[in-house]
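Chapter summary example.
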Amino acid sequence: MSSMSVAQPRAQRPQSLVAAVVLTLVVTIVGNIIAFFWLDAEEGRSVVGGAIGAFSIGIHLLSLWGLWNLRRWGWILALVLTVLEIVSSIPFFGDDRSWFVAFAAIAVVVEVVILALLLVPTTRAVFRKA
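The structure predicted for these 130 residues follows.
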């Protein structure tokens, strides 16, 4: 027999984690497209909005990579980012544009769903072992 070490297989990704990753990816892409093309262009801040959007996409992709590869830091970062997304959406409910309030409401609902998916026992169990 060979004395080569065999790497332990990583835990299986639960469906709740896969759903959280997919939803986060969609929200990140759609949210930043809307923020960059509609909101910032409308208010004349496309350069600043683009920089913030690029940072946001980068940090979200980092957390998604960590989640997908079952890294505990990725799970913690995703939790923090999701809570920040929910909190940062609250001021937009006072906007006078009804479509914008509707978008913020949908975003908050989706972010709450993502948070729930990250906190269900099947997802948490994977990161307790990691």
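To summarize the output: Helices lie at 15-43, 46-68, 72-89, 98-119, 121-129.
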